[in-house]
Amino acid sequence: MAMPSGRLSRFPAAQELTTADKDAATYADKQLQLTTEFQARRAYVNGNKKKSTAKIFDAIPHYKEFAHIHEDFLMMPKMCNISALIFQANFDELVENLRIYLLNKGKGFDKSEKGTLDVLLEVNEMCSSKQGVKSSSAPVFKYEKFGKPLSVNYASVNTSALVIFKSKDAAPYSMLIVCGDVINFKNVPINNMSQAVLNLISVYYVIDRHYPAMFGILLLVERYCLCAVGAATKGGQVGDTSHWKNFVNEFDAFVSSQQAAKGNI
Q1: For position 16, what pLDDT does the model report?
Q2: What percent of the chain has pLDDT over 70?
Q3: Cβ atoms < 10 Å from Cβ of 56
Q4: Helices then strands (H, E): number in the chain?
Q5: Tell me, what's the pLDDT at 264?
Q6: Long-range contacts of 94-101 (CB under 8 A, 24+ apart)
Q7: I need a surface site. Which of 78, 160, 189, 251 has the fewest CB within 10 A?
Q8: Is pLDDT of 183 > 50?
Q9: How far is CA 27 from CA 24, 30, 48, in A?
Q10: Closest CA to 128 of 201, 205, 210, 219
Q11: Could you report the per-residue pLDDT of 80-104, keeping only the tens digit for each?
Q12: Could you read off the pLDDT of 47-61 as tens digits, one per residue?
């Protein structure tokens, strides 16, 4: 019969628990570090509203990769309370209502992703102010065909996007986000226009820039889609252009009348 060695056994369960505790502590430290770095970036961007886009990217090289901009956007208050699926649901509802609204005005658009792009551009024309717009300004979104040379406007001061399709009947393939002549984000993968719009909005949010008055569609999407389902911010607010307010008031009244008509059927 073997005699006890006098040494305590190392039980596997106890060893695994110790490893798990260490892993949890390491994860907590890493998350704290990431949060601290995020807060430092936001403090710099928000600390001086007069910082140029170029100065922000020079001071925070982290933002020179779109993936990092997107990560910080997801940590910001507007996105912390919703998910990409909620944004998608809100966006789909908004675009469908816009399609019906435009059809009522004699302007029909198909339900392809290219059709959605056309809807957004048409509505942008209706809700945006053109006062003071320079001829060199780029459109908020521009259709481009995959495999063709891209026509990029680096002279525009506003951040805009080129949406690249393999064909007009297919889903968008990727996008190029152009921050004027400062920086551009190439080959950003997307599967639909919802992602394209959210990606462009994320750049405006992270570098803390107001949407240009000529890009009214971005403000419309933010108010109707960056929220819980059914919690859209409707109507104009202080600081909105009268042009934008007039469009929204008419659009909201139209949607309400459509909903009332359905309720009476």
Answers
A1: 58
A2: 88
A3: 20
A4: 9, 4
A5: 58
A6: 94/220, 94/221, 94/224, 94/225, 94/232, 95/119, 95/120, 95/193, 97/251, 97/255, 97/258, 98/123, 98/251, 100/258, 101/251, 101/254, 101/255
A7: 189
A8: yes
A9: 5, 5, 33
A10: 219
A11: 889 889 999 999 999 999 999 999 9
A12: 877 889 999 999 999
In the block, which residue shows the tokens 């997801």? 74
Residue 8 has pLDDT above 50, yes or no: no
> Residue 53 and residue 76: Cα distance in Å, rounded?
19
Residue closest to 251 by CA, chosen among 199, 216, 204: 216
Q: Return the bridge partners of 175, or none.
A: 163, 188
CA distances from residue 243 to 115, 116, 214, 236, 239 in whole angstroms, order as listed: 24, 22, 10, 10, 12
Which residues are within 8 A (CB) of 158 and not within 5 positions of it... i.e. 6 or more apart?
A: 137, 138, 140, 180, 212, 214, 215
pTM for this model (two decimals): 0.86
User: DSSP character for 163?
Assistant: E
Whether 159 contacts 203, CB under 8 Å: yes
